[in-house]
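Page 42, continued from yesterday. The earlier attempt failed because a stray header line got pasted into the input along with the sequence. Redoing it now with the clean sequence only.
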Amino acid sequence: MNSLTGQTLAAIVTNNHRAATVFEKYSLDFCCKGKRSLAEACAEKNIVQGDVINDLLNQLSEQPKHIPFAEMTNEQLISYILIRHHFYVKQSMPTINMHLQKVAVKHGERFPYMLKVWELFKHLEQDMLMHLHKEEVILFPRIKELNSEPISGNIASIKNPIHVMEAEHDEAGELMYKIRTLTNNYEIPENACTTFKVVLGELKEFEEDLHQHVHLENNILFPNSLALFV
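This time it went through. C-alpha cells are written below.
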C-alpha cells in the first residue's frame, strides 16, 4: 500500500494502464499533473487515500481465470458475454475516445496518424453500440428461446441475424487492425505523454477483448445454436 502511496500518478499508470480507470473515477489528473505522488494528489483533492488504493489494488490484481466455455449452455454463455464483454465495451469506449481526443488535439501535428486513429475509433464506437444492441434485443433472446434438444423450425430466424453479426464482427476486427497498423502495434513514441501511453495500452486491451468476444460468439455460441436445428 505504501509503495503505491509514494509513486507518482504517471508512474502508476505507466506500469499498468488499467489504473487510469481508477484515477478517472476520482478525477485525478495523471497526465498534466502526473508528477504528483498519489498521496499528494489525494490530499490536494481531499480524497480518502485508502479508498483510491483499495480500488487500485482491486483493479490491478484481477487475474484471468480458466473458464470452460465449451461446457456452458447457450444461456450461460450469453450471460457471460453480456457481463464480461458487453459491459466492458460500453464502459471502456467513452474513456478511450476521450483519451484519443486529448492526444489528437494536443499532439496531432507531431503524430498525425493519431488523428486517423481517433476517427477510426469513433466509427468503431458507433458501430459497436448498434451491434451490441442488436445482439441484446434480437439475437440473444431468440437463442435463449431454443431448447437444448434438436428442434425443427425456421432456422432462418437464427441463421440470418447470425450472419449479420458475423459480418459486423469482421468489420470491427478490420477497424482495429487498421488502428494497430497505424500505431505500429501500439508502439509508444519517444517522449509520449502519459495519456498517449495510456490510450495505446487501452487500445491494445480493447482489441484483445474483441478477439475473445468474437471467438466466444463465432466459434462456440453461434455454431451451438445452429446445431440445435434438424
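Notes: Residues 2-60 form a domain with the SP0561-like fold (CATH 1.10.3910).
Reminder to self: strip header lines before submitting.
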